[in-house]
## 1
Amino acid sequence: MTISLLDMLSFLCFICCWSGYTAFARRKAKTTACIARSLHQHRIHWMYQLMTREMRVGEAALLANLERNIAFFASTTLLVLAGVLTLFAQVEKLESVIASVPFSALNHPLVQVKLGLLAGIFVLAFFQFTWSMRQYGFLNVMIGAAPVDKSGTDENLRGYARQMAIVQDQAAHTYNYGLRSYYFSMAALCWFFHPLLFIGASLFIVYTLYRREFKSRAVIAITAGQAHLEAEQQSRK
């Protein structure tokens, strides 16, 4: 099987975009206001408030709603993966469809490699979603074990609340990684048509993710909300 230099460069660009953005976002979130950083502070505040309540039905409902979203993506991922694996038996039909697209650069030996890349992406996404679901299950156990601290001043229980927030934060990060797999699978689809389109789509996905996680209006509102919560906490002391 021969692989053109352009195909190799496009695949390398894809890997660099995905792994590079993941490393960049993780490092930048430590010093810059973004969705991940601000929501972590909201989760800590949420867990602090949870410790002061005897009835935690509202929290159970909110967590169940989060888990339903993840379960939807996990089951959908299996369906998508089954469709991708089915295409391995229909390579000739797939090639005829691609060849009908204007300006497509069809490389017959690489079609199965490209299908393998898509399958690998959705396998990774499935692992991420199921691990996120398990971590939310761990969080439910911790909430069930949490005693009530109506005063909200017990330092041991506040430390326990922070640990619950960390578990929830890890579950949310894993869910985010699964969603990121879906984003980059859209770029991988472009490889079927042309390597240059694959490169352009990979860069566009990185730009889209950056704008949404660091520059969107949602980030501004969440960060402002965090400031209001902190001010409210200070006023209670």
## 2
Amino acid sequence: MIIDGVNADAGKNDEIAFGRRAALLNRRSFLVGSAVGLGALGLGGCAVTDGMSLAEAEKVYGPVPQDKFPIPAVDVTKVDPKYFRKTVAYDGKEAAGTIIVDPGNYYVYRVEGDGSATRYGANVGRDGFRWSGDAYVGRKSEWATWTPPREMIKRQPEVAVWARGMPGGLENPLGARTLHLYQNGAYTLYTIYASSDPETIGSGITSGCVGLLSQDMIHLYDRTPVKSKVVVLPA
């Protein structure tokens, strides 16, 4: 069963969900190295509010029964508490609404514009598939259709059943919400997506995409309009 591109064989399933991005590493100019670091962005040594208790986390990451496909509760015991959603201090220059991805520390930030940022735990690209640079949210999708590329079908004929697209749902690799990243009007094929696999948060498993827990992804998605700036830091 595929659930957000990860199962017991994470490497194989990650290839199923995100294999098409790997080929882009040598074909797209999107991968522009960024010299900017956490300190320059005002995130170095952030002061953090008190973290969630387990009871609080169980509420924040509880079930979402009203969604198109009811989303189950997260087993928060499988997530390191440092990756629970938090508010941190931010004194950088990025405008409110900017998304900052810190793959080296497995965090995604949303700048709030009041001297703070919302921080989410994430999974990121595995070694050899991480990238850095600036992009923007070119479009947004709820329960997006996933279509395996032809190259993947050749490598893994079993995914040919989805050659015309896997409909949205709990087993779809893109999950409940997806932010599609663009540069210069072109879709990079990289995304920030919803994951229902708590074990993956705080690890490098993808071919360059960034996953948040479904409840965190909905929280970010609802507050992120198209054209929002995205900054991906070097790992």
